[in-house]
């Protein structure tokens, strides 16, 4: 009986540890996905600038990939000294991340 109780406690401890590690892994994945989505939004904004150098505005909240529940968006605004600031935002799971780049046009 004692051995069975000890083995049960060990198994419960292992299962609890594994569930905590799984939750941490899931959070890490969502955190990284949010950054990748923010970069996707930023790159989408930069591609619009490459097409139309005078473009300033926003890219609406876009679900990517479709039906994933993960989103990106971007904003392009005038910066100082002829620069354009492109900000990308990404959302995945419980995380949201923001990346920003300053683009100098015309060399």
Task: Explain how this protein is built.
The structure is a single chain. 47% of the residues lie in helices and 33% in strands. The chain has 107 residues and is of the alpha+beta class. It has one domain (2-104): Pantoate--beta-alanine Ligase, Chain: A,domain 2 (2-Layer Sandwich), CATH 3.30.1300. Strands 1-2-3-4 form a 4-stranded antiparallel β-sheet. Strand 2 (71-78) and strand 3 (83-92) form a beta hairpin. The mean pLDDT is 91.
Number of helices: 1
What is the N-to-C order of secondary-structure elements (H for helix, E for strand)?
HEEEE
> Order of strands across the biggest sheet?
1-2-3-4
Q: What's the Cα radius of gyration?
A: 22 Å
> Any idea how many domains?
1
Overall 3D geometry? rod-shaped
Q: Give the CATH topology.
A: Pantoate--beta-alanine Ligase, Chain: A,domain 2
What is the CATH first-level class name? Alpha Beta
Q: What is the makeup of the main sheet?
A: 4 strands, antiparallel
Strand count:
4
Structural class, by secondary structure, is: alpha+beta
Strand content: 25-35%
Whole-Å distance between the termini? 79 Å
Q: Uncertain segments of ≥5 residues (pLDDT<50)?
A: none
Helix content: 40-55%
CATH architectural category: 2-Layer Sandwich
The overall pLDDT, averaged over residues, is 91
Helix-strand blueprint:
Blueprint: H1 2-51, E1 57-63, E2 71-78, E3 83-92, E4 95-104
Antiparallel strand pairs: 1-2, 2-3, 3-4
Question: What would you say about this model in short?
Answer:
With 107 residues, this protein is of the alpha+beta class. It has 1 helix and 4 strands.
């Amino acid at each position: 009986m004692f051995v069975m109780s000890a083995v049960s406690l060990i198994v419960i401890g292992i299962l609890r540890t594994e569930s905590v590690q799984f939750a941490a892994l899931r959070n890490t994945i969502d955190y990284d996905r949010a950054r990748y989505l923010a970069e996707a939004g930023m790159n989408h904004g930069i591609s619009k600038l490459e097409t139309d150098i005078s473009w300033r505005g926003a890219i609406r909240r876009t679900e990517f990939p479709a039906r994933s529940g993960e989103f990106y968006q971007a904003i392009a605004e005038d910066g100082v000294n002829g620069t354009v600031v492109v900000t990308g935002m990404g959302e995945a799971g419980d995380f949201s991340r923001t990346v920003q780049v300053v683009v100098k046009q015309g060399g």
